[in-house]
DNA sequence: GTGATTTCTTAAGATACCTTAATTTTTATC
DNA sequence: GATAAAAATTAAGGTATCTTAAGAAATCAC
């Protein structure tokens, strides 16, 4: 049994909120078409994007999903999307996964960790300009597809400042 | 077979460099005693701490270890330490892990991801003061044990600024 | 226990990035 | 295709955090 095969799918119009802070996250979404974002809202009301998920990517709040806690994050569709989803109940079938499937799961988790760690390194050690250039290299398709203000949020800067960064880069 | 049982251990004096940028990381360390740090050095020569690992924590460069790439990070002992270590060759025995072991591995990876994601949220959305207070809550033992300048680096600020933050907190 | 090293603090000036607000450009709607 | 809405840019002034440098406090080495 493969975790994401033969799942139900549903269409999600742009702007739909799939998970709100305080909710318990009962699904793991796999994006078939479109794009989702996860984000937090800080004390002063500002939104900070944690992850994007476009085609074939997975999106969930792991902490909430695995540990049955209220979530601290939001998940929205930023394009008209279609998602396959795993619910808590069919996730419990994980114990029925065979050895090869578990190894595959393991590998995906490791890759996810590697990616998240790179993001961390980037936030800690790179300037706004470097982070933007790195994003362009790493996600060339997303940059064409998403509004810059969402990318700015993902990169940890304001849209206005990203605009400055882009202008300075263009002048070079 | 449990991954970290019955492994060799070795003593590592404070200051020892276990992994340097450019090296291929051939070990996963489990700290028996003492403390390690992993860090990057940015373009201007500044050090940014990625992780600490004290007793029972695991330390490695996953990207380098799993994908046999040259590493971008350093790993040093910041106290006289003792570590158990898994090498690439005995890691390949992972295919001999039984179902329960793999599930356990999976769970550890998930927990690691959850922790790293919290760190990310923190860096994106919290002020220096909030990050410091969060660190005290999350790692009360480390704060007593490690020099503040290392904690400042981990929190993404300079030691001088952390000192300011602490003074302002003390005045309240 | 004394000198040497490392850590921590303080303070002044600098800078990366933010805020607000207005304008322009692009995209969506009917 | 005109109008409305959303996104992107620009600019001025502000703030959080950094840099440099120096001194005080704590820790280490013998």
UniProtKB/TrEMBL annotation, chains A, B:
Q: What is the lineage of its organism?
A: Bacteria, Pseudomonadati, Bacteroidota, Cytophagia, Cytophagales
Organism of this sequence: Algoriphagus chordae
Question: Matching Gene3D superfamilies, A to Z?
Answer: Jelly Rolls
Cyclic nucleotide-binding domain residues are 1-94
Top-level taxon of origin: Bacteria
One Pfam annotation, family name?
A: cNMP_binding
Q: What CDD domains does this protein map onto? A: CAP_ED
User: Which protein are we looking at?
Assistant: CRP-like cAMP-binding protein
* PROSITE patterns (UniProt xref): CNMP_BINDING_3
